[in-house]
C-alpha cells in the first residue's frame, strides 16, 4: 500500500489522537461525507474505513446498521483476555472446549483435551484458524465462566463507545437464543484499539504459526485465514463467516506511521472481500486527512 510522504508531517499529532480513541460515543471519529463517488466499489451490505491515526472516517456504507459479525467477535475476545491475563499464563484445554467447536459447527484450532497452552499460544489458535475451541477455553478461564466473560465483552464494548454492539458468546457462532450483533463502525473502533496491543497486532499479522510438541502439549500448525496478508502494508486483522453474517473482514494497513482500519460485513463472495479491502486501503492512503 502506497502512502504519500506528504502525510509524515501530520503524523505526530495524528498518533496522539488515536491514543485517546477510548471515550464513549466514538470520540475522535469524524463523520464521512454522505457520498464518496471516487471510492472503490463495495458489494457487501456494510463497510467502514477509518483513518486510525487521525480519527477521520474515510468511507461509511451503512456503517451504523446492526447485523451479525460472525468470527470478527474473536477480536474482542483477544482484547478482553489481555486486559487481565498474561501471555505466559497457562490454560488447560478441556473436553468441553473441544466439543463446543465440533458440536456448534464452528472452525477449530484442533485443540486436544488435556493439553496445556499459554495464553499467547492460544491467541494464535484463536485468530489464525479462527478456533472456536480456543475462544471457549479462554472465555471459560477468564470470565470466570463463559457467561461472565461475555458480560466483560459487553462492558468493554460500552467503555469503548460501541453502543450498537451486543455479544452473546466469545466466538460469533449462531445461538438458539438469538445472535449477537454489531456495526461496521463499532468494529472499526474496536480494530483501531485492538491493534494498539502489540501481541494482537503481531498475532493478527502472522500467516503461519507452528508449535512444537512438549511435555505440556502436542504439536500444532495454524494457518491464517486472512488472504490479505502478504499485500504490502497489510497487518491483519480477522475474517468471519456464518450463513447469517455472510463473509466478513476486519482489515488494516499501515505505512509511514499512518494506519487505516476497515470493516466489510455481509459480502456474498469470499474472495471479493480481500480484493475490496486491498482497493480500499490503496484508495484511503491517497486521501488527505481533514
TrEMBL record:
Classification via Pfam families: Peptidase_S11
Peptidase S11 D-alanyl-D-alanine carboxypeptidase A N-terminal domain span: 35-267
Annotated InterPro entries: Beta-lactam/transpept-like (IPR012338), Peptidase_S11 (IPR018044), Peptidase_S11_N (IPR001967)
GO-annotated molecular function: serine-type D-Ala-D-Ala carboxypeptidase activity
Example GO BP: peptidoglycan biosynthetic process
Annotated family: Belongs to the peptidase S11 family.
Name this polypeptide is given: D-alanyl-D-alanine carboxypeptidase
Source organism (scientific name): [Actinomadura] parvosata subsp. kistnae
Amino acid at each position: 500500500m502506497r502512502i504519500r510522504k506528504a502525510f509524515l508531517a501530520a503524523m505526530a499529532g495524528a498518533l496522539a489522537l488515536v491514543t485517546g480513541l477510548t471515550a464513549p460515543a466514538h470520540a475522535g471519529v469524524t463523520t464521512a461525507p454522505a457520498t464518496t463517488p471516487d471510492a472503490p466499489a463495495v458489494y457487501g451490505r456494510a463497510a467502514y474505513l477509518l483513518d486510525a491515526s487521525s480519527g477521520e472516517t474515510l468511507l461509511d456504507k451503512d456503517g451504523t446498521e446492526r447485523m451479525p459479525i460472525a468470527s470478527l467477535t474473536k477480536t474482542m475476545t483477544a482484547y478482553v483476555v489481555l486486559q487481565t491475563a498474561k501471555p505466559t499464563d497457562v490454560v488447560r484445554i478441556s473436553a468441553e472446549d473441544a466439543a463446543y467447536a465440533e458440536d456448534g459447527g464452528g472452525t477449530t484450532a484442533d485443540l486436544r483435551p488435556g493439553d496445556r497452552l499459554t495464553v499467547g499460544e492460544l491467541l494464535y489458535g484463536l485468530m489464525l484458524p479462527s478456533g472456536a475451541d480456543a475462544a471457549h477455553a479462554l472465555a471459560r478461564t477468564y470470565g470466570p465462566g463463559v457467561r461472565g466473560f461475555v458480560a466483560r465483552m459487553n462492558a468493554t464494548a460500552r467503555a469503548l463507545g460501541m453502543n450498537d454492539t451486543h455479544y452473546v458468546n466469545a466466538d460469533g457462532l449462531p445461538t438458539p437464543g438469538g445472535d449477537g450483533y454489531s456495526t461496521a463502525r463499532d468494529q472499526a473502533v474496536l480494530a483501531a484499539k485492538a491493534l494498539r496491543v502489540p501481541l494482537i497486532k503481531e498475532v493478527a499479522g502472522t500467516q503461519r504459526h507452528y508449535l512444537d510438541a512438549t511435555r505440556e502439549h502436542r504439536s500444532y500448525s495454524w494457518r491464517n485465514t486472512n488472504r490479505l496478508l502478504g499485500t504490502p502494508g497489510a497487518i491483519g486483522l480477522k475474517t468471519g463467516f456464518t450463513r447469517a453474517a455472510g463473509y466478513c473482514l476486519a482489515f488494516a494497513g499501515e505505512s509511514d506511521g499512518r494506519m487505516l482500519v476497515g470493516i466489510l460485513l455481509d459480502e456474498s463472495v469470499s474472495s471479493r472481500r480481500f480484493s475490496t479491502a486491498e482497493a480500499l486501503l490503496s484508495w484511503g492512503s491517497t486521501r488527505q486527512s481533514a
